[in-house]
Each structure stands twice: as C-alpha cells, then as structure tokens.
Design a protein that fits this description.
The complex is a heterodimer of chains A (270) and B (318). Chain A has seven helices and ten strands. Chain A has a single domain, classed as P-loop containing nucleotide triphosphate hydrolases (Rossmann fold). Chain A has 270 residues and is an alpha/beta fold. Chain B is mainly α. Chain B has two domains: 49 residues, no CATH class; 192 residues, MetI-like (MetI-like fold, Orthogonal Bundle), CATH 1.10.3720.10. Chain B contains twelve helices and two strands. A two-stranded antiparallel ribbon of chain B has the order 1-2. The chains are: A alpha/beta (270), B mainly alpha (318). The interface between A and B is large, with 51 and 45 residues. Bound molecules: adenosine-5'-triphosphate (ATP) and magnesium ion (MG). Adenosine-5'-triphosphate (ATP) sits at the interface of chains A and B.
C-alpha cells in the first residue's frame, strides 16, 4: 500500500538478503535457489511470484528460519537469522493451527509463550481476534471453522506477537475466490494499521499487484536446469484503493505476467 | 531445523471446511450467541428420540448372543457335554452357581466359607497392584516414547534392544521375577510394569513420529523452545495414540494379575483364583474370572473418562 506521506522508519531495511543460495540434500544435491539479493524496507509489502518450483517457498522458509541457507547472509532488523522467532510470524497455506486449542487459546499462545502479563495476553488476544472479525468464534475449536476463518485465526495468532515481519506462503491459495478477496482486503487493512513488513508468496499475479508495493519475480528452478533466482523487482506505485480493472493495474500485471510467462515459453521450446 | 517440503498433504491436517464466503457469512449469523450452531439440527427432542431408538436397537442386537451362550452353558454342564480339545463341560459350574458364588463373594451369607464377603478386599488388593504397575509403566514409557519418537539417534540406539525384549511373553518373566524379587507385591507389580510398558511405548513412539511438521514449525515461530515443544505440541498432538496404548496396557495389566498373583500372595483376584483351583472350587474360579473381566472393563471406562475430564473433551488431531 502507499508509502507516500508515511515517515520512513529509522531502520532503512527490515530484511537484507545478500547472495543467498540453498542446496537441498547435501553437497551433491539440487541447487534450488542461488544468488538471491534483496533489501526489503521496513513496512514494505513485498509479493514473491514465479512459476512452480522456482524457490519461492525456499526463500520464505529461510527467512522464517525453518531452513538454513547454504551460502549468503540474511539479516532481519540487522540481526542475523539463526532460527524461527516470534519476531517473524509465519502464516502457512494450511493454517497450522493447534487443533486442541480454541481460537482464543491459539491466538493467546504466542503472548503466553513470551510470558507477558495476563492482562496483556488477554488484551492482545481480544484485540487480534477482533481485528480478523472472529469475536463470536473465540471459544470454538479450529475444526469447527471454515478454511477462511481458520486462516483468519492463523493471521491473528501471529499478529498477537506483534511481529516486525509477517511471512506468508500462499496463505489464500486453498480458499475460494470470494473468501480470498475478502481476506486480501482485510490483510491490506491490517498491513496499513500495523505497518508490519510483509513478504507474501503467491501464484496469483493479480493478487500480488493488488496487495504489494513491490513484486519480486523469480525464475528458474530445478525443472529448468537452473537454480531459482530473482528475475526482476517490479515497483507497484499504485494508491490505496486499487482497481483491478484500471489501466495502470493491468499494465503492471501484464509486465509481470510476461516475465513469468516468458520463461515458460522458453522452456517449452527448449 | 526440520527438513520438510512445503507441500506435504499427507502429514498435515488437510484444508477441509473450505466454505464459500457466503457460507461463512451465514454461519456467522446463525451462530450468534448459541454455542451449538455447528450442526444445524432440526430439533433437539427429535434428536434425543433418535439416540434413544438407536440405543434400544443396539441393546436388542447385543442381547441374544450372550443369552444363547448362557443357555448353552447351562445345558452343556447339566448334560456333561464333551467338546473338542477334550473339554469336559461336566466339570464346569453352571452360570447359576457362578452367579450365586459372585453374590456370596460380594456380600456373603450364601456359601459361607473363607471367601464369603471378601470381594472388595481382593479387588482392592489387585487394583492397587494394577494401578502401581500401570502408573510406573506410563511414567517410564511416555517420556521415553516421546524422546524416541523425536530423536532419530535415541530411536536407533534403543529400538533394536527393545524389539528383542518385546517378544518375550510377560508370563515367561514370572519364574525369574520370583527369584530376583521374591514372592509378594513387588514381583506382581514388576510383571504389571513389564506388561504395560511396551504397548504404551510403541504407541507413543508411533504417535509422536506422526505429529505434523507444520505444527512444530508453528510452535517454533510462535516462540516455543525445543524442549517445551515436547509437552506443548508433541504430546497433545500424539495424545490419541498415547491413550490407545494406555488402554491396551491397562487391559494387559489385568491379564497379568492372574499369573502375577499366583505364588506367595494371599489377597487379590488372581490369588483367589489360584486358591480356588487348589481347593477345586470351580464356581469360585469362574467367579474370579468374571470379576477380573468386569474390573478390567471398568478400569478401561474409568481411564477413558479420566482422560476426557483431564483434557476437558478437547478435540485431538485426527
Ligand atoms: N525439502 C526439500 N528437499 C529437497 N528439495 C526440495 C525441498 N524443498 C524444495 N525442494 C526443491 O527446491 C525447488 C524449489 O522449491 P520451492 O518449494 O521453494 O518452490 P516454490 O517456488 O515454492 O514452488 P511452488 O510454487 O510449487 O510452491 C524445487 O525444485 C523443489 O523440488
Ligand atoms: Mg511453494
């Protein structure tokens, strides 16, 4: 969303990715991703797009601290990433909620883990459940909720930790179109309200252009015989209320599409 | 750090309930205030009727087989049938005699021998041994199973040895237990521990190994240190399997009583059966068997109930 008129935080880059590579399965394994360099300013909403297998999830999982990079450096708020942390909240495509905890308990999990005062835990829980509009479902279990509602819980759960970075891997990929668009609007609003840096992986170019102020286009992947890498970082200088039918929107969409698509046709003709 | 792939539909809960946003909205409206809006039931009373009818149906189905069995038993004893494997039914007490003996065992005043009215004493003695052995087994097997399920190295170190021990029937330990521990409570409890340990361990390991990686990742990114993950995520997520193992173990604990209480013990249901055999009181033998069966059944119900209470009926991972 627009950065115009918003004072830049003191830290210029929330995330610094420098020449990152990832090889799976030991020294002779597949180089899934290579030479990824990217600075993400604090408060940015960055979407990562690219064909399947180009290393989007790999990049995100390294950012989350779930995987170690094979080479290169990665810092978040100038601190090297050594493992998962509540500072970097992750929203999974398949939610990953604790089925034995109610909605409220799932959301309270992080604050409790951080040993916050009872009142503060309660405040954050209530506040974030309200932020995703699930007040009436606070005492339900995840299995009693629809997919869209479960993903709302998952978002509230990480927001309750007040993370500086929100990492999302195709969070709306399993949802139907209408739920998806509702959640996109909500996420845009949450991003505006919290100013959290968001890295959002998606297959949908439209979703990327709709949500982000920068789109990282990745190419390559094991099936192409070249490691996944960043092809281009596309700025999205669109305002707050974006119309998917506007010419500017479609201009950017077409450009990104051609980048993703170009690669597909090259491979097909090879 | 885990080495999962991002997409592993088999290891994490599938995204069911992908309701359309329209459905979302409807649920939200109808669910207002009421806690029971999750299954749109036509009416509560008709639901209760259906349950009642189902229960009556189940009883009607379950009753005939035991009744026929009891009738054949009575008849077989009266006419001294000879069955295959050399079973001489003439040596058996009739169901009526067994019922009489159970009543006398419980309250006395019918047979009036040394066993009259002593049921509770024996039942309590046996229950204590079962509980002690079962508790020790669970206290050892659950933590060990959790660690083995999570640690490849520990699993590889311990699994071969345990797999060699496991096929040895607990009954085969009896002579050794009598020698190294001596007659009495302790050797019985030791045998119960042995019997209960492996089912709990094996089910715990299996359950822990099946905990979805996604939940561990979620716990990690929410700030759970590795060790805490074991009891905050791994045990709850594996609870279904752990409880299944505990139920099998509790059943085996009652089974082993009969051999465990054979020598040097005067109170207990197993001891009663042994003494009854020495006195050729077949009705008391069968009475003891029936009571052990009922005790085992009730113990299982109590365990399930206790776990329900402790977990407050929370859903588990399916
Ligand atoms: N745990 C793993 N072990 C071995 N190879 C892996 C592992 N995870 C990913 N890969 C490989 O790394 C490459 C990049 O995978 P990644 O999941 O990052 O792609 P992606 O861009 O997220 O794809 P998709 O759009 O399908 O989700 C693929 O070739 C994949 O097979
Ligand atoms: Mg992916």
């Amino acid at each position: 969303m627009p950065r115009i008129g918003r004072p830049r935080p003191a830290i210029p880059a929330a995330i610094r990715i420098n020449d990152l590579s990832k090889r799976y399965g030991g020294p002779d394994g597949v180089l899934a991703m290579d030479g990824v360099t990217l600075d993400i300013p604090a408060g940015d909403f960055v979407c990562v797009v690219g064909a399947s297998g180009c290393g989007k999830s790999t990049l995100l999982r390294i950012l989350a601290g779930f995987e170690d990079a094979t080479s290169g450096t990665l810092t978040v708020a100038e601190e090297p990433v050594t493992g998962p942390s509540p500072e970097r909240g992750v929203v999974f495509q398949d939610y990953g909620l604790f089925p034995w905890l109610t909605v409220a308990e799932n959301v309270a999990y992080g604050p409790r883990q951080s040993r916050l005062q009872r009142d503060e835990v309660k405040r954050r829980t209530t506040q974030n459940i309200a932020a995703v509009g699930l007040e009436r479902f606070a005492n339900r279990y995840p299995s009693e909720l629809s997919g869209g509602m479960q993903q709302r819980v998952a978002i509230a759960r990480v927001l309750a930790n007040q993370p500086s970075v929100l990492l999302m891997d195709e969070p709306f990929g399993a949802l139907d179109a209408l739920t998806r668009s509702t959640l996109q609007t909500e996420l845009a609003r949450i991003h505006r309200d919290t100013g959290t840096t968001v890295v959002f992986v998606t297959h949908s170019i439209e979703e990327a252009v709709y949500l982000s102020n920068r789109v990282v286009v990745m190419q390559g992947g094991a099936s192409h015989g070249i490691p996944g890498h960043i092809a281009e970082v596309v700025d999205v200088p669109l305002g707050e209320n974006r119309s998917v039918t506007s010419p500017e929107f479609n201009e950017i969409k077409r450009h990104i599409s051609s980048l993703v698509h170009a690669e597909l046709t090259t491979t097909a003709t090879e | 750090m885990t080495t999962s792939t991002t997409k592993s539909p088999s290891t994490h809960p599938p995204s069911t309930h992908t309701a359309a946003p329209a459905a979302d909205a409807t649920t939200a409206k109808t669910a207002e205030g009421t806690a029971a809006a999750k299954n749109a039931s036509p009416s509560k009373s008709s639901q209760r009727h259906t349950i009642l009818r189902k229960k009556t149906g189940a009883i009607a189905l379950a009753l005939p087989v035991p009744l026929v069995f009891l009738a054949l038993w009575q008849l077989g004893v009266q006419q001294a049938w000879s069955l295959p494997l050399g079973i001489q039914m003439g040596f058996l007490p009739t169901p009526v005699e067994v019922a009489r003996r159970i009543a006398d065992f419980a309250v006395g005043g019918i047979v009036n021998d040394a066993f009259s009215g002593t049921l509770l004493i024996h039942l309590w003695a046996s229950t204590q041994r079962v509980l002690a052995g079962f508790a020790i087994a669970a206290a050892l097997a659950i933590p060990l199973g959790v660690l083995m399920g999570r640690s490849r190295i520990l699993n590889d170190m311990l699994e071969p040895g345990l797999n060699l021990l496991r096929p040895i029937p607990v009954t085969a330990w009896v002579p050794l237990a009598m020698l190294i521990i001596g007659y009495g409570d302790m050797s019985t409890i030791f045998l119960v521990v042995l019997a209960a340990f492996f089912p709990i361990l094996i089910n715990t390991v299996a359950g822990v190994q099946q905990v979805p990686v996604r939940l561990l990742e979620a716990a990690a990114m929410l700030g759970t240190p590795q060790v805490q993950t074991l009891y905050k995520v791994v045990i709850p997520a594996a609870s279904r399997s752990i409880v299944a193992g505990m139920r099998v173990a509790l059943g085996l604990a009652w089974v082993i009583l009969v051999v465990g209480e054979t020598v040097g013990i005067s109170t207990g249901l197993g001891a009663t059966i042994t003494q009854a055999r020495d006195m050729s009181k077949t009705d008391l033998i069968v009475a003891g068997m029936v009571i052990i069966g009922i005790a085992g059944f009730l113990a299982d119900r109590l365990l399930v109930g206790l776990i329900k209470v402790l977990t407050k009926g929370r859903p588990t991972l399916t």
